[in-house]
Amino acid sequence: MEMGIQLTAIHYVYLAFIVFILALLIKRRDTTMICVAGIFLLGLLATETLGGSVSGIFDSFIYATKELIGTIMIISIIVAMSRVLIITGINETMVAPLTRFIRTPAVAFWGIGLIMMVTSFFFWPSPAVALIGAVLLPVALRVGLPALGAAVAMNLFGHGIALSGDYIIQGAPKLTADAAGLPVNEVMAASVPLVIVMGTVTTVVAFWMMRRDMKRGTWRERLVAEKSAAGALGSSGNAAGEEQAVISPGAKRTLAILIPFLFLADVAAMFWLNLQGGDATALVGGTAVIILIAVTLLAHRNQGLEKVTSYLSDGFVFGFKVFGPVIPIAAFFYLGDSAFTDLFGKVLPEASHGIVNDLGVALAGSVPLNGAVGALTSVVTGAITGLDGSGFSGISLAGSIAQLFAVATHSGAATLTALGQIAAIWVGGGTLIPWALIPAAAICGVSPFELARRNLKPVLIGLGVTTVVAMFLL
């Protein structure tokens, strides 16, 4: 095998299960049992003991939960805060001015998407979803944009366009550029036309498919709760408790101004203190907890102490309800990276960098070397490395593969590097892998699996068109 990677039975079994899982997702079937079977079989191959493989199932669930706990927390807290704002009517007062500008589903789709994109450029998508979703989702629902449509807009513009370009924070282009031995500015410049093509094609196709399916009556919402997404944020309270949540009109107007101001202060703090990723999410989450406590004490008075706990409990119930089906699947795909060694020991070949990266290297080492094949291989390699759901874990490999093809074919290394980066992040960064796009799905109260299926065709069409454009740019 070229490039010093020897594939083992573990690699081939993992690849076979990936193909099987993707086929089931396309056919709208649940994959939890298949993922558990995959974990068991991989554990059996790695440990060669029944006890080790059985224990590996539980340990992989724990590993996935630890990796996802930050996202579970921010979603649960935002849901809890949003519920008390909805019950007290503050949310309605807060979004009332926006209804003058957002009057149709189309304006809501593109407006939410563009606002999400701009916010995500500065602070990455996860905290941006919490900020944008809590404020704009009720407005979008009111004018007729389905909750799933809002999730698609936030997802494609944030985790797709903004994260794949990453022009402000520059985390993604720095990783790929370093691996390809190129200046960051060169990779960023080469990515601009590709990001524009990918973003335009994907969002236009997604919007067209949404409008088509709504007209045909074939649109599937798959809400997590019984009510609409806005109602889902407050779906589990008791009516008697809700009736006691009374705030005067003056206080309601004051809080409707103060709460967005507090989140704007978070945005300013993120920019001023250079907070990003988990730190930015933590700031938003802490602010949401403070707002939840203050509004609950003001609205419920003597029952405030108990109601704070009740709202938080409802938020966590909702958060874990969304994540419950995802953890087993995430557990399987995390095995494609460092989790495998952490759980089962060093049983992979010495030169291995994880199952997924090994598969990507093997692919690059087994195809003919020319510009067109280089572009196609960069996309496929990026997409494969994105299957672990992070988007970032494999983009260094995408840069290395781009350098390999550029040297062999004398083609544009920066273009190939940018193409691999775009493929990895669009697939793994949060538009196709169900647990990676949970923030948008949970805030909108929709199934992450349905959101992944809704994104599949637009993203694949976008990748196809972008790959063709890249071939002409080489």
UniProtKB/TrEMBL annotation:
<keyword id="KW-0472">Membrane</keyword>
<feature type="transmembrane region" description="Helical">
    <location>
        <begin position="69"/>
        <end position="90"/>
    </location>
</feature>
<feature type="transmembrane region" description="Helical">
    <location>
        <begin position="6"/>
        <end position="26"/>
    </location>
</feature>
<feature type="transmembrane region" description="Helical">
    <location>
        <begin position="456"/>
        <end position="473"/>
    </location>
</feature>
<feature type="transmembrane region" description="Helical">
    <location>
        <begin position="311"/>
        <end position="335"/>
    </location>
</feature>
<protein>
    <recommendedName>
        <fullName>Transporter</fullName>
    </recommendedName>
</protein>
<feature type="transmembrane region" description="Helical">
    <location>
        <begin position="128"/>
        <end position="145"/>
    </location>
</feature>
<feature type="transmembrane region" description="Helical">
    <location>
        <begin position="423"/>
        <end position="444"/>
    </location>
</feature>
<feature type="transmembrane region" description="Helical">
    <location>
        <begin position="189"/>
        <end position="210"/>
    </location>
</feature>
<keyword id="KW-0812">Transmembrane</keyword>
<feature type="transmembrane region" description="Helical">
    <location>
        <begin position="280"/>
        <end position="299"/>
    </location>
</feature>
<feature type="transmembrane region" description="Helical">
    <location>
        <begin position="102"/>
        <end position="122"/>
    </location>
</feature>
<feature type="transmembrane region" description="Helical">
    <location>
        <begin position="255"/>
        <end position="274"/>
    </location>
</feature>
<feature type="transmembrane region" description="Helical">
    <location>
        <begin position="33"/>
        <end position="57"/>
    </location>
</feature>
<keyword id="KW-1133">Transmembrane helix</keyword>
<feature type="transmembrane region" description="Helical">
    <location>
        <begin position="152"/>
        <end position="169"/>
    </location>
</feature>
